[in-house]
Structures are given as structure tokens and as C-alpha cells.
Please model this.
Amino acid sequence: MTTSYAALLRGINVGGHRKVPMAQLRSLLEELGHRDVKTYLQSGNAVFTTDADTAPGELTAALEGAIEERFGFHVDCLVLDHERLAAVAENCPFPAAELEGKQLHAFYLSGPLDEQRLAAVDRAAYLPEEFALGDRVLYLYAPEGLGRSKLGEVLSRPALFKGLTVTARNWNTVVKLVEMTGPHA
Model:
């Protein structure tokens, strides 16, 4: 059985640091035995198919190891199958179709997040910005975009996500990754 996945790399190609050229990422994924490899943007999004009956966590570990070996630095990655990507899009508590892509973000999480970790965030202090926790995802509505979001700054504190890998994507990318991994891709 062939399964489609998206690999989300965290914190690469930002400000000239931790460069991972997309052509080399595509080659690396092919060397790992994956097919139909495509990248999206320069920010570390790749999709691929594989016949291997391998869990996403094992695919993630293999990719992280291969990146470290090839480029000489560690990159946190998340490998998510089409079903998980589609569930994130479908279960968004905000009116995604009515918003600009830069206003809505999904923080993909490697595991469940205890809501207690977010209890200290004074939600009212950041309005109209809002967040909502889903299944291994945190949704952020930031009307002025993530770059100007005060709530986004607070939610980016490593202590909130200790023990988890987290990487954020704007809604345009969320939708595109669902399309790229879908059955008609």
C-alpha cells in the first residue's frame, strides 16, 4: 500500500542559517527510498509517497538522521500522513475560508499537549488574537499575521512545548499540503 506523507522541517533557511536547499532535500528523500518527492516553498515542506509499512515516527527519525549526516546539523522534523493533515484542516475551529492565509496558523505537535501548559496564558490580554488546542495541533488566529502577533510570541516559548517537536505553518501551506498529499495529487 502506498501512503502519502508531508515532511515538515523546523527552522531551516531562515536568515541564511541552517540552509537545506530544496533540491538536496528532494534527493535525500529519494535516497531514503521515497517516491513522488516534491517540495513546497523554501521553508522546509516536502511531500512524498512510500510503500514501506513504516510508522511516521520512524520516518521522522530516519529523515532527521539523514539531514544531520548530510548537512552537519540537527533539524527537528515532523512526518505526517495525509489523514492527519486533512484532519487538522477539517477540524479548525476558526472560519478558515473567510480569513486570509496569513491570519491563521497551525502549530503541528509531535504529541498531545496538556491544556494545563496553556493555562497561564491570559487569553483576554491578546484579543482579537485567539488560539485553540486540537488533536496534536494548536490553531492561532492572528489578524495582523504571525510576524506581528504578540500571542504568537507567547505561544512560541519553548517551555510551553517542552518534550514536543512543534512547527508552525500558515493556512495557505496547511491547505496546500493537504492537496499535495491527497489521493488526486
